[in-house]
Amino acid sequence: MKKALLPLAILAALPATALADEEVTIYGRANVSVDFLDDGADYSKVNVSSNSSRLGFRAQRDFDGITGIMQIEQEIDYSDSGSNWASRDTFAGIRGNFGMVRLGKFDTPFKRARGPANLFGDQLGDMRNLTRAYDGRFDERMPNTVHYQTPSLNGFQFNLAYSVHEGRDADADGSDNAYSTSLTWSEGNFDLALAYENFDSNRSRGGRDAIRLAAAYDIGDATLVGFFQTIDHDNDVFDSDVYGIGASYKLTDKTAIKGHYLVRSADTQDGDSDMLAVGVEHRLGSQLRIYANYAMVSNDDNANLNPWSQARTTGTPGSFGDTASGLSLGLRFDF
What are phi and psi of 116, to 5 degrees? Predict the structure, then answer.
């Protein structure tokens, strides 16, 4: 039996009473699409992509006001029958009036701070195609991490995560740690997130730090969003600013259109890129939606980014100095 199937066999053997008490939850997402991708040079093909599809298990139990929590989540590749056990947010911890403390591997507060402006998450046109470029990468899932989250106070919430090291053991000189913080505020029509993150010099892809600000404002059926990120890397070639605006609008209760425009301004000469994405989404139910997106990235001579490489199984790179574009027809089923 494959290792990835063992958890299903274990859960199938759990007492029925445990599942009936909803202390154990099985959940997941199937997000797949058919994409036509063109790098603006030699590549122009149709692909099938699995887009951050996942399968997870959660458990919790209350102990006189302190709740024990755990989660195991793995990516599922519907396009090529692949998966890696516990490859996504996997942790154990406790929750109570004091907030939440957990240990494991999971999205950093900095990564989650893009939420207010995240119109194309896990789809063609995802902002991470610019914010997570080259070795100036953020939006990471840090291992060996301790995370504290405060309770919400008048809409404010603070997060602090400290990654002790990468791999199984700490680096000999102790300079492979990282930390991530965020302050979020949600009140009425406003949703704001401010975050800071730092990686030490021996961390993968080198020492670097960044500041991120994301905002959203609801106006009836419309939502306006804005985003800014600045990166400072030990290797100046990866320094950059990413900024842009976007909006979504509900045409009906089930159908919405959306779009954003983002610019990556790099310190590298002729290294800038800009991305335009537009899309429409129709919800067939609370757990099932279909969508269609078009996105394009225009590159200067020393940039080769594209709108499809992040959170998706399609991995073809862009072409230096060209405009990469794609059209995606997808389906997302949450369960």
Answer: -60, -30
Residue 109: phi, psi to the nearest 5? Answer: -55, -35
Structure tokens at 108: 């950093």
Start-end of H helices in the chain:
6-12, 16-20, 109-112, 128-131
Q: Which of 288, 320, 294, 291 is CA-nearest to residue 307?
A: 294
Distances (CA, A) of 69 to 18, 115, 141, 195: 15, 23, 19, 25
Query: Tokens for 141?
Result: 């899932």
- Residue that is written with structure tokens 């404002």 in the block: 217
Residue whose C-alpha is closest to residue 299's, from 307, 291, 287: 307
- Pair of tokens at residue 20: 């009936």
* Amino acid identity for residue 227 in this structure: F
Between CA 324 and CA 296 the distance in angstroms is 6
% of the chain surpassing 90 pLDDT: 82
Q: What is the pTM of this model?
A: 0.90
CATH number of 3-334: 2.40.160.10
Structure tokens at 306: 């594209």
Chain segment 64-83, per-residue pLDDT in tens: 999 999 999 999 998 876 66
- Reported confidence tier of residue 170, pLDDT bands at 50, 70, 90: confident
Angstrom distances, CA of residue 178 to CA of 125, 150, 237, 243, 268? 28, 20, 21, 24, 25
**Domain boundary assignment for the chain:** 3-334
pLDDT at res. 80? 77
Task: For residues 113 and 160, give the distance between their C-alpha atoms in angstroms, rounded to a whole number.
Answer: 12
**For residue 135, which of 86, 201, 182, 77 has the smallest C-alpha distance?**
201
> 60 burial class (0-12, 13-18, 19+ CB within 10 angstroms)?
middle
Please report, rounded to a whole number, the percentage of residues in the chain having pLDDT higher than 70: 93
Confidence of residue 116 (pLDDT cuts 50, 70, 90): very high
